[in-house]
Specification:
By secondary structure, the protein is mainly α. It has one domain (about 1-140). The protein has 5 helices and no strands.
Length: about 140
């Protein structure tokens, strides 16, 4: 199992970073989609939001994969944070993307910002930990 975990760490770190970048792109696509609305006020039928919806689905899938990788790594902190990401990306985001309840819909962008913040924070901490571990190995070898 140690060999699997050794390979899983870099995959986890890279996927986390790519998902964080995708989160920033997602916010851009939301703005582009909203300001690209023409005609009908029904958001469900606005093709300008299609890229935002598609990337949101991809981010949700990535969150699930990150959670599964955290289980392989058996790291409590990462299991907790990635479980939260799954809840936010797969449940909160879908439940709050509604035109029927504007107050509930207001949670959608706030949740999105929380997702990007968590992804960015985790990504940064993973890269710092990897550099720190690499430096310790270099010092011990030297």
């Amino acid at each position: 199992m140690a060999g699997v975990r050794g390979v899983t760490w870099p995959v986890f770190r890279i996927l986390m970073s790519l998902t964080a970048v995708a989160g920033v792109v997602q916010i851009f696509l939301a703005g582009r989609g909203v300001f690209g609305i023409r005609g009908s006020a029904n958001l469900d039928h606005q093709s300008s939001l299609d890229p935002h919806r598609t990337l949101g689905d991809i981010i949700g899938i990535a969150a699930i994969v990150l959670f599964l990788l955290a289980l392989i790594l058996w790291n409590r902190r990462l299991i907790g944070w990635t479980a939260l990401l799954v809840v936010l990306t797969e449940f909160v985001q879908h439940a709050t993307a509604t035109q029927k309840h504007p107050w509930l819909a207001g949670v959608h962008p706030v949740s999105g910002v929380a997702i990007v913040a968590i992804l960015g924070w985790l990504s940064g901490s993973l890269w710092r930990e990897a550099r720190s571990a690499s430096a310790r190995i270099s010092v011990e070898a030297g």
